[in-house]
Every structure is written in structure tokens, then in C-alpha cells.
Recover the amino acids of this structure.
């Protein structure tokens, strides 16, 4: 598709954005360029590429033609200017923070996050001298209070793990803007079909493409999407982007590349030196998945709504956290933040506590007990004994992963079959109570 064509709808873009028939063969589907290095036309061409004066393929740690199609596809669907794909969602988070942070700097983050992200942010990033301050993102004053002179970013999830909580992105973005800081939104659980964080003020969006974007549990991957709207030179707080880069003869990314500064830095410095590169096979699987994203997400949401309602009416269930239920305190936010639905990820509390939850996950037949989400298959996990095991009881509660709670990722199977499966497993889980 040409760049100056009409503006297409989501269903068209999820199939065509970034792709064109292969110039070498005319192949209609994007080929898997299982290739490492690319021949320079001549020595001048090589020099121009290495000086970032010309854009092209050098070596697949930085750029690969198959991965490039996926980068453009995801950037387009998110309404961003560019994207950098990475080897996993966690790699994308490090890549997203890398140009912004330095030893002594911090990021203010929501308490409601994927368990692995809580661990990455509370422990691992400290080895780089970075730190994260966790606050309740429903309390805007708490976010303001947590921001100090060393803060370099604000981070949250749109539809947040594990409870399907919805972040008021517009309100959080306004706080970030007051402070002159970029808001980074992990949009994994919503996908750009349900939520477009850039339209709500996010400067950057990160994804685990492992989940709904690929959709069927085949490959791990991640992406960092740049809105292209943040002014990296305004405050002097982002020298990697505004000041001379020694490894490129003093080139200043923001001055040279304007709105594309962050994306170029992600490739030319981030991937070059951190090497968290997505491989072309993974990009291929994810491109295949994205072609049906809207169809899958609509079905995920429809199933989740039906199952959440059924669970809420069941006496063996204490409560259900799905934001798509009128009983949810976040129901009002669905219309504003994710008008096509509240996703397919939620938790419910089982009468009988920890032991009943363990019996439930062991008794289900269609649902798989796995540490994953966003698969065509329905998945369940008891977070307190698995993904959130490393957290303190207080952190578990704050993250919506109390011991009596299970998290489900509703798939696109027949909803009635899923309900029947939950029904028989709840009977076993709560027998004798
Ligand atoms: C899975 C997940 C991640 C981490 O992604 P990986 O691809 O597993 O590294 C980050 N954030 C959210 C919301 C996730 O669901």
C-alpha cells in the first residue's frame, strides 16, 4: 500500500500495512528473510549506512526485511510513527526504558502489572542502577507525589494484569504531561483493536507480541511503538536523544531524525548494543496472527462477557473482576478507554480459597493451566502459587492476585463448552464446603 493513499480501516491495515508484494519475486505473502547480512552496493553505500545517512539493511541484529514489515504493521495499527520489534515483551520493556534511563534515574509505575514486570521492575532493573516507584494509578496525587527530579518515565498497562483493571489513560497522561515525562503504556492485553493508547496521550507503547498479536501461543516477541510526538529536547532530561552520541561521531538523534529520533535510537543503539532482536521466523508467525486480530479480539470479548456474567451469578464464586460487567468499578472506563470491549482477561475469587483454586485448575479439561495469556485457547492460572509467587502478600493483593483468586484468559472456543467446563471443575473444587 502506498503511504499517501486513503486512510484505511483497521481490518484492512491489519492485513496490508507495511507489506507489499516481494520486489524480487512478486510473492504476495511476506517472505521469511532467513538472512543475516546484506551486500553493500559499494563502499560509499556502506559508509552512508553506517553513518545513518541512509536507511537500509546491514545486519539482522539491527534490521531484517521480515521484521521491518511487522514493525510497520504494529506502528500503523497503534497510530505510531515507528516501532522496534524485540525478542520478547520483557526485552521490549528494557528497550523502551533504555534511551530514557541512567544510573540513579527512576520510573513511576502502576502497582497493577503483569507479575513478571513487577519482578523485572522491582529487582532486575536495579542492577542497571535504575529503580521503579510503585503507586496506585487510580490516585493521581500519588503519581504526582512519586515523581521527582530523577523520574524519566511513567509506566502502566491499558487493560492491566491480572484483574482486567482499566487505567484512566487520559488522566495519567495529563499528569505525565504536567511533569514533562513520557507515558509508556503496555498495551498487550488490549491490543490496538481494543485500545489505542497514543490517542489517550501515551508517548510510547510496548507490547508482548507473544500474546494476542500472534494469538496462538507459537512465538515470543515484543515491540516498542513510538508516537513521534514527545519533545526529547525540551527538558534536557533525555541526553541519549538530545545530546551528541559518541558512537555515531557526535550525531544528535533528536536534531537529526526529528519525530523518528526514538525509533532510530532503538535500532541504531538499542538493538545494536543490547541485541534483543526479534528473529524473522517469529516476525512471520506474528504477521500471520495479526491478519486476524480484529476477528479474534471481537470473539475473545464476546466469550469473556458471557462467561464473566455466568460466573458472577454462580454461588460458588465470590466475585468476578471483569471490567465489562456493570458491577465493576471500571465499567464506566470501558466506553472511554476501550470502547470495543474490556478484553478477555479477568480474575475471579473461588469460595474455599487457595485449596479450592488449586483443585479448580487441576479439574478443568478445556482450560489449560499455563503461564500465558492471549491464546486462541482458554487458559487459567492460579497467580498466587505461580506468576505472583515471588511477591509479598501485600504485593499480591495490590496486584489483584490474592490466594483465593484465579486468572483466566478466555479463548475463542465455543462459550457454552467453556461454561460447562468451569461448571464441572467448580463442582469438584468446592465439594464438601
Ligand atoms: C506476557 C507479558 C509481558 C512479558 O512479555 P514476554 O513476551 O513474555 O516477555 C509483559 N506485559 C504483559 C502485559 C504481558 O502479558
Amino acid at each position: 500500500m502506498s503511504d499517501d493513499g486513503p486512510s484505511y480501516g483497521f481490518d484492512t491495515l491489519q492485513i496490508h500495512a507495511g507489506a507489499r508484494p516481494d520486489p524480487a519475486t512478486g510473492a504476495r505473502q511476506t517472505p521469511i528473510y532467513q538472512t543475516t547480512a546484506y551486500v553493500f552496493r559499494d563502499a560509499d553505500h556502506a559508509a552512508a549506512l553506517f553513518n545513518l545517512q541512509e536507511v537500509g539493511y546491514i545486519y539482522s541484529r539491527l534490521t531484517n526485511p521480515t521484521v521491518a514489515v511487522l514493525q510497520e504493521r504494529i506502528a500503523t495499527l497503534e497510530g505510531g510513527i515507528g516501532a522496534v520489534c524485540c525478542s520478547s515483551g520483557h526485552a521490549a520493556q528494557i528497550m523502551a526504558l533504555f534511551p530514557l534511563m541512567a544510573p540513579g534515574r527512576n520510573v513511576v509505575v502502576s502497582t497493577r502489572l503483569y507479575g513478571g514486570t513487577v519482578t523485572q521492575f522491582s529487582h532486575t532493573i536495579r542492577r542497571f542502577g535504575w529503580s521503579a516507584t510503585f503507586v496506585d494509578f487510580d490516585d493521581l496525587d500519588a503519581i504526582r507525589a512519586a515523581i521527582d527530579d530523577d523520574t524519566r518515565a511513567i509506566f502502566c498497562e491499558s487493560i492491566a494484569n491480572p484483574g482486567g483493571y482499566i487505567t484512566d489513560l487520559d488522566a495519567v497522561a495529563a499528569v505525565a504531561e504536567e511533569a514533562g515525562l513520557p507515558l509508556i503504556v503496555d498495551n498487550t492485553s488490549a491490543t490496538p483493536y481494543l485500545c489505542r493508547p497514543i490517542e489517550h496521550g501515551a508517548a510510547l507503547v510496548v507490547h508482548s507480541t507473544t500474546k494476542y498479536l500472534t494469538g496462538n501461543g507459537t512465538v515470543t516477541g515484543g515491540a516498542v511503538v513510538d508516537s513521534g510526538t514527545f519533545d526529547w529536547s525540551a527538558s534536557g532530561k533525555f541526553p541519549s536523544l538530545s545530546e551528541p552520541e559518541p558512537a555515531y561521531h557526535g550525531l544528535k538523534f533528536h536534531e537529526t531524525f526529528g519525530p523518528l529520533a526514538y525509533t532510530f535510537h532503538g535500532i541504531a543503539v538499542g538493538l545494536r548494543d543490547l541485541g534483543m532482536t526479534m528473529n524473522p521466523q517469529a516476525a512471520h508467525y506474528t504477521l500471520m496472527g495479526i491478519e486476524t486480530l480484529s476477528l479474534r479480539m471481537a470473539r475473545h470479548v464476546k466469550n469473556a462477557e458471557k462467561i464473566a456474567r455466568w460466573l458472577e451469578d454462580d454461588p460458588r464464586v465470590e466475585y468476578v473482576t471483569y471490567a465489562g460487567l456493570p458491577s465493576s468499578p471500571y465499567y464506566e472506563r470501558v466506553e472511554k478507554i476501550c470502547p470495543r470491549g474490556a478484553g478477555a482477561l479477568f480474575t475471579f475469587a473461588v469460595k474455599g480459597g487457595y485449596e479450592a483454586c488449586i483443585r479448580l485448575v487441576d479439574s478443568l479439561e478445556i482450560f489449560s493451566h499455563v503461564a500465558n495469556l492471549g491464546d486462541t485457547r482458554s487458559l487459567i492460572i492460579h497467580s498466587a502459587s505461580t506468576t505472583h509467587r515471588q511477591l509479598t502478600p501485600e504485593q499480591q493483593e495490590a496486584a489483584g492476585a490474592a490466594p483465593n483468586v484465579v486468572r483466566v484468559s478466555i479463548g475463542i472456543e465455543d462459550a457454552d463448552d467453556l461454561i460447562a467446563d468451569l461448571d464441572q471443575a467448580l463442582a469438584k473444587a468446592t465439594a464438601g464446603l
The pocket of pyridoxal-5'-phosphate is lined by residues 88-90, 114, 116-117, 157, 161, 186, 188-189, 208, 210-211, 220, 222, 373 (CB under 6 Å). The chain has two domains: 10-289, 293-429. The CA atoms of residues 109 and 155 lie 5 Å apart.
